[in-house]
């Protein structure tokens, strides 16, 4: 009995100590006066992050395709500037090739005397949900472009430059809770978001050699323009399954990510649901700033998720007939023979 108590006391004090340690050790990242480069910074959480970092005194460059949207975004950033000498810029590029990713980055370095950005945020991404049976070779490749390749090419361009110029910078990936798990309808999106995790895990370790910090954010629903867009093709059943997620505004997501970076977390999550998926899908990934919380959530989650998943599976099975009718109406299935 005593020895059990001793072990408990030892374990708890160790955990509390480690927590305390992480609270007091290390300086918090201060973006003020630093150049932050944001892909997908023209709308949604990328834009919210651009505004947040502008308010913190950073120099901010945003990159996306649509020029009109970029101008509107830049105007919002201008309105948020805190000093007259902050450099705020926008660049129009489609970032789905390495060549474009390099060109966009080089251009963004110019107003900074050719210096490399100290923080690179890879927010650009897009989901186009649908049923796997209806996807095409083209839509599946596009799915990887709009998730993995958008992130990977800019990560490669930025890290090469950071290494060459000995910049001890930060590379921040944006995955999704769908980079930890998946649900029906996300066959062209979830694989690429899982792939981003694979890349981030690799680079976190490899870049220890260059003092480049790697982070990855796993949000669930963000009520962004992109979310409105994806809902146009989202299967009704999926829309219903997603109702268990409360969702956050782009501003809340940007702040959640920012706070995670302040804690120094490698995997950043900021809601109950995403914390649960992070702590149950951890593997050998480093713990977050609060080890006790991670262990607790991991334990509770490993049980609760079994029930959640069973419930979802049940709803999917209950949808068989309706789905068969749908597939007949779209011509995937031949009309029933009478
Ligand atoms: N919304 C959600 O529910 C969730 C989103 N996420 C992820 O978070 C990130 C931000 O999402 P969200 O806030 O919804 O953002 P939005 O969909 O509102 O914005 C996406 C941004 O990326 C840009 N972009 C898209 N494709 C390209 C491209 N080929 N080249 C350059 N820029 C591009 C868009 O501009 P333009 O089209 O003009 O190029 C825009 O600036 C994405 O990676 C998304 O996958 C993760 C979980 C949930
Ligand atoms: C105890 C545990 C309970 C668990 C409940 C889990 C509920 C999960 C809801 C899933 C939400 C899906 C978000 C998709 C985000 C995304 O990446 C897309 N919107 C694409 O942009």
Task: Give a structural overview.
This protein is of the alpha/beta class. It has one domain (about 25-300): NAD(P)-binding Rossmann-like Domain (Rossmann fold), CATH 3.40.50. It is about 55% helix and about 10% strand. The chain contains 12 helices and 7 strands. Helix 2 (about 45-55) crosses helix 9, helix 4 runs parallel beside helix 5 and helix 5 runs parallel beside helix 6 (about 190-205). The model has no long low-confidence stretch (mean pLDDT about 95). NADPH dihydro-nicotinamide-adenine-dinucleotide phosphate (NDP) binds next to helix 2 and helix 7.
Tell me the count of domains.
1
CATH third-level topology? Rossmann fold
Which architecture per CATH? 3-Layer(aba) Sandwich
Main sheet?
7 strands, parallel
Low-confidence stretches: none
Overall morphology = globular
Small ligands present: NADPH dihydro-nicotinamide-adenine-dinucleotide phosphate, 3-Dehydrosphinganine
Element-level helix/strand string:
HEHEHEHEHEHEHHHEHHH
Q: Strand share of the residues?
A: 5-15%
Q: How many extended strands? A: 7
Whole-Å distance between the termini? 73 Å
Class computed from helices, strands and strand pairing: alpha/beta
| Average pLDDT metric | 94
How many helices? 12
In the sheet with the most strands, the strands line up as 3-2-1-4-5-6-7
Q: Could you state the CATH homologous superfamily?
A: NAD(P)-binding Rossmann-like Domain
Helix percent band: 40-55%
What is the CATH first-level class name?
Alpha Beta
Rg (C-alpha, Å): 22 Å
